[in-house]
Write a structure and sequence with these properties.
Length: 259
């Protein structure tokens, strides 16, 4: 992965899957299911601080909802449910950890109104695709929370080197080039400052959110790789699941089959 003349650790594996998920979300024809998932994310994110200006996680959730053409009233209703102005189901956030084919570590986050239903569904998906659901903490140590900012377009009058330097000067601690885009990584507390700094310099932000990033990756090939991708896809499509990350490194030709 080219990193120009700078020396930062390469983030491998997760970005390809994140890109596949991103494209898949945009192409998702099941609008009601997608809106439900986005609403849950907004509800959970807005608890404690319903102001997106001071709550980066909520701002990111709202941006994703707008990108999916979710009506403004749906977004506002979700925030009101979070603050107690409107009633409805009580959602809680839960995480699950396990292993997929090839010994790949998988961490996922769900938002549910029924923990037993969600746990049963997640366990079934793991077992049906050659994986195993583990206990709390079994793989979490292999990941860390980071701020992620994706820039798809370099502003006119600015080149790639200048864009990268701008992000680093604003506080990004790492970056990668990914299919023509520049992705910056920050400490969670620095996400909003770096995002706003880039915007202030006329740099359009495609995505800005908190993500889990693997510290190391596991190479998986052949049938194991294909089986792993089917497992990740099934987890991603489970209606309660909001986020899935795995520490895999899979050949591009296999990834291309599911892109």
């Amino acid at each position: 992965m080219p990193h120009c003349q700078y020396h930062f650790s390469a983030m491998a594996g997760h970005s390809k899957w994140a890109n596949i998920k991103y494209r898949k979300e945009r192409q998702d024809k099941k609008r009601s299911a997608l809106f439900s998932r986005l609403s849950r994310e907004i509800i959970v994110a807005a608890r404690g601080d319903p102001n997106p200006d001071s709550n980066p996680r909520l701002a990111a959730a709202i941006e994703r909802a707008k990108a999916a053409n979710m009506p403004k009233e749906n977004i506002e209703r979700a925030i009101k449910r979070a603050t107690g102005e409107l009633g409805g189901e009580r959602y809680e956030e839960v995480t699950y950890e396990g292993y997929g084919p090839g010994g790949v570590a998988i961490w996922l986050r769900a938002v549910t109104d029924n923990r037993n239903r969600t746990a049963s569904a997640v366990r079934h998906i793991f077992e049906s695709h050659g994986g195993s659901l583990g206990t709390e903490g079994c793989v979490a140590w292999q990941f860390e929370r980071k701020g992620k900012i994706r820039v798809d377009e370099i502003p006119e009058g600015m080149d790639k080197e200048e864009l990268i330097m701008t992000g680093i000067e604003l506080g990004a601690e790492d970056f990668e080039e990914d299919e023509g885009s520049i992705v910056f990584y920050t400490q969670p507390a620095d996400l909003a400052a770096v995002r706003d700094g880039l915007k202030a310099r006329g740099i359009p932000i495609a995505q800005a959110e908190l993500v889990m990033v693997p510290k190391t990756t596991v190479r998986v090939e052949g049938k194991e790789a294909e089986q792993l991708l089917k497992l990740l896809d099934a987890l991603d499509e489970q209606e309660d699941v909001q986020e899935v990350v795995a520490n895999f490194d899979i050949p591009d030709e296999i990834l291309a089959k599911v892109a």
